[in-house]
Amino acid sequence: MIKEKLGHRLDGWIHTAFPFLFWRPIPPDAMTVAGTLVAGAAGLAFAEGALRLGGGLLIAGGFFDLVDGVVARHFGIATRFGAFLDSSLDRVVDILAMLGLVVFYERAGEGGWAALCALILVATVLTSYAKARAELLIERMPGGFLERGERIGLLAIGGLTGFLQPVLVLLAVGSCVTVGQRFLYAYREMGRLDREDDRA
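^ thats the sequence. predicted structure below, dont judge the formating
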């Protein structure tokens, strides 16, 4: 939701806040991989109960994810594979972070919270898949209530502040709502296209 409303301003903000990124070309794919390694390590931290460390790693990894595309566009080195790599590795981070929390709560004997984290994991993957699959058939899919940036940001805040469980409840509800929004939009748009085909 935030990315959809403010994403067009992101490049300017990044240029202003982090000018050193644009002194010389930096391979954006390398930044993507580095960010994945850092943020993916959050899953291990969560699994070991180091929740604040996990939150910090998500923030650090998210920085790379935030700027890699901006750097690529600035130097004119954006590629289709770079976009594919970025999107694919985002899913790796999403899965590792939530799996880490599933392991953490299972070890702590809190099966209910582990199940909630598993639900968030399923909804997160389905949210991303629904968009990718739908955009093979329709022009674009709106982001919905809770996109990836918000999910990762909230999870990081929950880990850092110690208010992880309320954040998990919000993520569960928001992610399921987002899945519903995307399915409903796909149903409407694909139905419209089917009707146009029938008239043709």
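The helical segments are 2-6, 10-17, 28-47, 51-74, 80-107, 111-134, 148-161, 164-199.
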